[in-house]
Amino acid sequence: MTKQVRAARTRQALIRSAAIVFEQHGYAQARLALISSGAGVSTGALHFHFENKAAVAQAVVAEASHGLLAVSSSIRRRTDTALQTLVDTSHALVDLLARDPVTRAGFRLSCDGVRGDEPGLPAQWQRCVGELLDEAAAAGTLAEDVSRTDATAATVAATTGFEVLGRYESEWLSAPTPTGFWRLLLPRLATPETLPLLDPSGTAAAAEAVATGPDGHRTSGVGAAAPI
Amino acid sequence: MTKQVRAARTRQALIRSAAIVFEQHGYAQARLALISSGAGVSTGALHFHFENKAAVAQAVVAEASHGLLAVSSSIRRRTDTALQTLVDTSHALVDLLARDPVTRAGFRLSCDGVRGDEPGLPAQWQRCVGELLDEAAAAGTLAEDVSRTDATAATVAATTGFEVLGRYESEWLSAPTPTGFWRLLLPRLATPETLPLLDPSGTAAAAEAVATGPDGHRTSGVGAAAPI
């Protein structure tokens, strides 16, 4: 293993450990010594990668945003319509929020005001939803009387709510919740011709993207494209 | 002013001060001395009313829940349909989240897992939305192919999202946000005959309920009904 690969792995281990420590103790109470020991390295190694706690938090947020972007792009390649990509990506995001500490911490830190050079996770999701609705409109699959701004806001706000409410009631972050949301919303969003083609419970593309996503996710710090 | 009235006022002042301190410092960091001094009383006076910090937090949550219930009942008396009451109550809740520290702290403490004997604010809101949708269904104003469970979940999750996203971007908690949500959702929820009767931007009842609500809210600890 080259030095560069080792350094990248350590960085990813630190990000993952930080996500877990931020979740357990909160950002204010999180100690760097706990983050480094969780990654199996010294605090010196942590400081080689990150200047301070804020830099670690920003890296967690950036990692979570990149993960969402990778998952969304992967789903887009495997689905026929932008609206199905939107449904599938929301399912993948809910699944990641339920199971992946980096995505969850990235979301919470963004909501708690941690700001880096890159957009936080809700902002990244908002951009993604907006672009997919633009694409649906351009393809003529979005109902004409729907405001894309309204639909983007409702989708982003509801997903944010699922995460917050899911902290203490896990069914908010299980598949039936986004399925119910799309069962309600799709008949309003899609043209009558497109609606029968859409599955509110998501297609196999969502599960596949999440299954391959964490790998792409963990290796994204290496600077190489995800190999799968 | 009788002793009883004075005690009730002190209790309300403590709840309000606690809401502000919880918001500024977080629950874990909030000091009781800061809460009592914010209410202009001694820590002894605080301990006369509340056993510990958890009891203060539960009182904030209960106060916020009662406030929402009072506002919703007041709106129901002034609107013609259950769906308009739902729209108006969501506008009132968003307005309270933007302006009233007790509602905001009650919401956040509930989301952060503070549990008392009474339901937290999102749970109270969920019950309220569910009941109004049941009423709309019974009155034949709800579209027949809409699942009330789905509509309740989407409304509660989106409102929760507005609060979280509004912490750093205030437009999430301004009137255009719930208006956009209902502009999107009402054509799906309401029967074609009911839709033209509904105003997604809310009626005067919402603003009136919030204007009189905080009074009812502040005096609710006295055990008397709101006089207005």
Automatic annotation (TrEMBL), chains A, B:
Residues 8-68 form the HTH tetR-type domain. One of its GO terms (molecular function) is DNA-binding transcription factor activity. Gene3D superfamilies: Tetracycline Repressor, domain 2 (1.10.357.10). InterPro entries: ArpA-like, Homeodomain-like_sf, HTH-type_TetR-like_transc_reg, HTH_TetR, Tet_transcr_reg_TetR-rel_C_sf. SUPFAM superfamilies: Homeodomain-like, Tetracyclin repressor-like, C-terminal domain. Residues 31-50 bind DNA. Keywords: DNA-binding, Transcription, Transcription regulation. It comes from the Bacteria. The keyword Transcription regulation applies. PANTHER family: HTH-TYPE TRANSCRIPTIONAL REGULATOR BETI, HTH-TYPE TRANSCRIPTIONAL REGULATOR RUTR. This is TetR family transcriptional regulator.
